[in-house]
Amino acid sequence: MDDLTKQQIRDAYFRLIEQKSLSPRWGQRQMVAEVAKALARMDDPTASGSAVCVVEAGTGTGKTIAYAVAAIPVALALGKKLVVSTATIALQEQFVNKDLPDIRKHSGLDFDFVLAKGRRRYVCLSRLDKELAGSAQEQSLIPLYPDEFDQADSAAALPYYNAMLDALGRGEWDGDRDNWDTEIPEDVWFGATTDHRQCSGRRCPNIGQCSFYRARDALQNADVIVTNHDLVLSDLALGGGAILSAPEETVYVFDEGHHLADKALNHFSGYCRVTASVQWTEECRKQLRQGASLASCTSVTSVLDNLPRLFEDVGGALEQAGQLLDELIDPEQLSGFADRQHYRFPEGVVPDPLRQVAGTLVALYQKLLAQLQRLERAMEDGMDGDVTGLEKADAENWYTVFGAMLSRAEGSLALWQEYDVDAAMEDPPHARWINLIEAGQGISYELRSSPILAADILREHLWDRAAAVVATSATMTALNSFERFILHSGAPEDSVFKVVPSPFDYSNATLRVPAMACDPSDPAAHTEALIALMPDLFVEFPGTLVLFSSRRQMHEVYEGLAGGWAKTILVQGDYSKQETLRRHREAIDQGRSSIIFGLASFAEGVDLPGDYCSHVIIAKIPFAVPDTPLESALAEWVEARGGNSFMELSVPDAALKLVQASGRLLRTEQDSGVVTILDRRLVTRRYGKAILDSLPAFKREIA
User: Fold this and answer.
1) Which of 315, 449, 496, 611 has the most CB atoms at less than 10 Å from its CB?
2) Number of C-alpha atoms within 13 angstroms, CB side, residue 506?
3) From CA 196, how far away is CA 302, in angstroms rounded?
4) 516 domain-assigned
5) Is 518 one of the annotated binding-site residues?
6) Is the same domain home to 290 and 384?
7) CA 525, 530, 531, 532: dihedral to nearest 10 degrees?
8) What is the pLDDT of residues 375-419, one digit of tens each?
9) Is 124 a known ligand-binding residue?
10) In a domain, 215, yes or no
């Protein structure tokens, strides 16, 4: 990094602080320096470490300003795109609508920014035209899993579609679902949008008015692109550069970066519903029989003649897989099946008979994909007017149909490839399991596969390709270490790792662990103890947030208290999260006490400053029971390597969640209050001290 860029960062920071009448924060200045130091490695061939910076920025640090004033000048100087990704829509909107305009106005930095969304957030004008004209072929859009989507009722959908087209025509709407002034039902919206496989792109007759492509073209000229983790990972899964800029030309900032690994696992996992897939093959054969408009297209005749038989072969192999699963899984004899609804293959090893069928399906799907890709290319030529006997409009319709088939076939192929592997060669192994789903009068099988860690995925698609990466949040460490983040995400060990302090004075708050005769290892006794203790805890402060790890315990405690507290307690699930918070604030503003009973979603991202939340009660250490297939497979792998899954996985995860939960208390530098943890295991178990030491430096009152 040259001296001019360094000076630009310093000037931008201090000008911004001065013009907004803010006080420089030591932690914020540290973060600016650490981010800039890491990003400078992009431009330094002698640098000994990766251009990756992982920063835990304590609550109140002002991390948005810190990473923006450090990253924007460096990206501009090196000609890179800056992609800022958040995990939540709320943060994304705040960054675009408030933070970036403020930074540009007051820092002296000259840059353009734009918000990037996925294709499904925009209306497809071609789809809209077809729906309104009633000319769309029956089932012209085949969802990836049709049993997951309901077909919109035409009578209900058409008023929406007419209103959309009218608003587009008058220039009163930009085609962005989030900018429509009322709620659009999911099934209605699904009929008016498309995905990348069914979009004909620049060949579309409506390309000049396409909302998605207008938004996408704006990305080319922007210096800063604001988006979410899901879209970034979708782009990386497509090879990078398909939606956003190429990773090699991009500086990524992941705000709420502690979500990155979990989001990556979601994007790189696979699934296939057996019964629905058999039905899909039948629907595809039915569609092909309706292909009169392709009859005169001699260039695809041979493919069309063979394709129905190929779909039939795929359906037969899927039925064989279903029969094998019937033999493998007996719901009546599976202990605890009613609660779990899944069957996991230990160590990811698929039984040989099922693996053999998987190999057959891989070969069939590969043949199917090859044929569908030939048809897709022919339809592209048809849209260009280069196919004799094929009208452009017919080519466009069939391009959509074959794109839907391809999308489904690609997803299924990826899943069956995962079931046709030697699990003994994997390290770490993949988790493979079967979800059991009610289907009519019987049971249907959904096959699943996922890496147990996102480390290899993110190394291949992000860390080893990106120009630079910054990952930050208030909770990047667990038990005062970055080891958990490195394990799950694969972040390079030669990255810049830094914890910068919060400006808050944690001695203004108190951490209490009161005396109790029991702990959560006896659930019934612990619940009774909570019911007995809480009335005395409630009276001390006007605004209280009570966080539970168990929905069942939350409701049992509420029922035990409801007689005298029903009008004061707001229970998660009775209203939306936003409405619960609104009612809570309204009660406090009117001088009444209010108590929120919430689960994990209230332990993160909830901002209740001052009297809105001066007491946080945590019912117990938030240990996650490893009962999901993915968690069970990860624990199994750790144990197989001679580790202790509880100490290596459960304790760090719980510590991180406890830090997030206790972080609901102090939201401004003036806040004070109490965090009460009703779990004596913090005192009586050997892991308790490590968890306590990872919490903020509250004053302590531990009985």
Assistant:
1) 449
2) 17
3) 27
4) yes
5) no
6) yes
7) 90
8) 999 999 888 888 777 888 888 889 988 999 999 999 999 999 999
9) yes
10) no
